[in-house]
Design a protein that fits this description.
The chain is an alpha/beta fold. The protein has two domains: about 5-290, NAD(P)-binding Rossmann-like Domain (Rossmann fold, 3-Layer(aba) Sandwich); about 295-495, N-(1-d-carboxylethyl)-l-norvaline Dehydrogenase, domain 2 (Orthogonal Bundle). It is about 45% helix and about 10% strand. The strands form four sheets. Strands 7-4-3-8-9 form a five-stranded parallel β-sheet, sandwiched between helices. It is globular and about 60 Å long. It starts with 6 loop residues before the first strand and ends with a helix. The relative contact order is 0.10. The structure holds D-mannonic acid.
């Protein structure tokens, strides 16, 4: 079905909702804010906002609406789109031949903090805000992978300490928001990290405390004693929105949406039940609360995210552009399965209520969903902060137990080859990473991995392992000399 006319997404649409689109039937004007979320991208809008929308739609809740915040200059487009659409947007779930669309109403306001930090501080200080949640990306926590410490050399961190009224990182915002509450005697909000880091709550806490200790030790002490930082595991594959998604929403549903989001049907959220100022009853809408999230986080990050990285870099070098193409390619299927089965599963252990064989099977099906046009380049973003969380810890653990590392090492070698910036045909590779300059400064000069391994803030002490270095050199040289396909064949032929 192709629509020739399309209706803009806005409040007016809700009065005359298209039949094939589910719209909020609750009164959005009656919603009050309870959550402030920093980092409203595709993932937040396909995941957390949907769970809240479910609570409003099916359980009559009115007091946990989201105030979205963007703190990066590149959030300008989201700011413009959402504010022009009364903060409404279309969420499409797609798989096989079916798709379903829904207008999400859980986001009540959106503040562009990059331009108006003061408005964000004031909102954070408002007692109605009981949770500040974050999707800051893996790199947003600015810590040194080798030491685990907050990186005080980071330009954003330095700015935030010197210019508290114009922060660039989550730390400047959280510190100012919490400081205002402390001074006003208001109960603090919970800080809920929704990023793919093992122990994301612990990381958020230790990095924020380190930052605040420099800013004002009394604030750090108050945070340490009063603020909770639950760990959580989040999951839903959500590609970046491009014109293809905008066109799909227009053609299939007759909706004109500047920033729709398309995601897979699967979603999962496991949270530690540790909130210092209350929480929405998310268990009513399928969220799992537990006292220990660590096993779930480890399973998801080391299997799903790691497989993504392993497919992304090598797949890109082999000429693929979408994850579903790689996950369907006959040469990649056994590689991804073997990486998970042989090199990662022995590290993951038992997960309460999860059958790992079924979990991995479902991952392979999810990766291969061809209606989800997840870009290899989305996966290849920010390797300098993703690999240290998804891949390198498994290599370290395997080295310790003298276990297999070749398939994981192939991912590291592929990333290093990718960082050379020219593909096998000599075409430019678009590298997006805050550390791009530093990394490519090395990879454009030499193919020797040792120079990169010296960056201990990324690699920790992996460069000291002779076994790993030898393996990496072998695979990286092969990638340069023989190409991705041949190297993959070699890795899969070795027993
Ligand atoms: C991806 C994740 O960024 C990545 O490298 O692995 O964004 C992944 O799609 C999500 O974590 C899925 O929950």
């Amino acid at each position: 079905m192709t629509n020739t006319t399309s209706t803009p997404v806005s409040k007016a649409l809700l009065k005359n909702a298209p039949k094939n689109v589910t719209c909020p039937t609750y009164d959005r004007d009656k919603l009050t804010h309870g959550i402030l979320h920093i980092g409203v991208g595709g993932f937040h809008r396909s995941h957390q906002a949907l769970y809240l929308d479910d609570l409003f739609q099916s359980h009559g809740l009115t007091d946990w609406a989201i105030c979205g915040v963007g703190i990066m200059p590149q959030d300008a487009a989201m700011n413009e789109a959402l504010n022009a659409q009364d903060c409404l947007y279309t969420l499409v779930e797609r798989s096989g031949k079916t798709s379903s669309a829904r207008i999400i109403g859980a986001l009540k306001t959106y503040i562009f903090g990059y331009e108006n930090p003061e408005v964000v501080f004031a909102k954070m200080a408002d007692p109605s805000i009981k949770i500040v949640s974050l999707t800051a990306t893996e790199g947003g926590y600015c810590f040194n992978q080798g030491t685990g410490e907050l990186d005080f050399d980071n330009k954003g961190i330095q700015n935030d300490l010197q210019n508290p009224s114009r922060p660039q990182t989550i730390f400047g915002y959280l510190a100012e928001g919490l400081e205002r509450r402390r001074k006003a005697g208001v109960t603090p909000f919970t800080v809920l990290s929704c990023d793919n880091l093992q122990g994301n709550g612990h990381v958020a806490k230790s990095t924020l405390l380190a930052f605040c200790n420099k800013r004002n030790p009394a604030l750090a002490k108050w945070i340490d004693e009063n603020v909770s930082f639950p760990n959580c595991m989040v999951d839903r594959i959500t590609p970046a929105t491009t014109d293809a998604e905008r066109d799909f929403v227009r053609e299939t549903y007759g909706l004109e949406d500047a920033f729709p989001v398309v995601a897979e049907p699967f979603k999962q959220w496991v949270i530690e039940d540790n909130f210092c100022n209350g929480r929405p009853p998310l268990e009513k809408v399928g969220v799992q609360f537990t006292s220990d999230v660590a096993p779930y986080e480890k399973m998801k990050i080391r299997l799903l995210n790691a497989s993504h990285s392993a497919m992304g870099y090598l797949g890109y070098l082999c000429g693929y552009r979408y994850i579903y193409e790689i996950a369907q390619a006959p040469e990649f299927i056994p590689y991804v399965k073997a990486l998970m089965d042989e090199e990662v599963t022995p590290l993951v252990g038992e997960i309460p209520g999860v059958n790992l064989t079924d979990y991995k099977k479902s991952l392979m099906e999810r990766f291969a969903n061809e209606t989800i046009k997840d870009q290899a380049l989305r996966i290849c973003l920010d390797g300098s902060s993703k690999l240290p969380k998804f891949i390198l810890p498994s290599i370290s653990e395997q080295l310790e137990r003298k276990g297999p590392i070749r398939k994981l090492t192939l991912c590291v070698a592929s990333w290093m080859r990718f960082l050379n910036g020219k593909d096998e045909e000599g075409n430019e590779i678009p590298i997006q990473d805050p550390q791009a300059e530093r990394l490519t400064g090395v990879t454009k000069k030499t193919r020797d991995p040792k120079a990169l391994l010296e960056m201990t803030d990324i690699f920790g002490d992996l460069g000291k392992s002779e076994r790993f270095v030898k393996e990496l050199e072998l695979l990286l040289n092969m990638l340069y000399d023989k190409g991705g396909q041949e190297t993959l064949k070699f890795v899969m032929s070795e027993k």
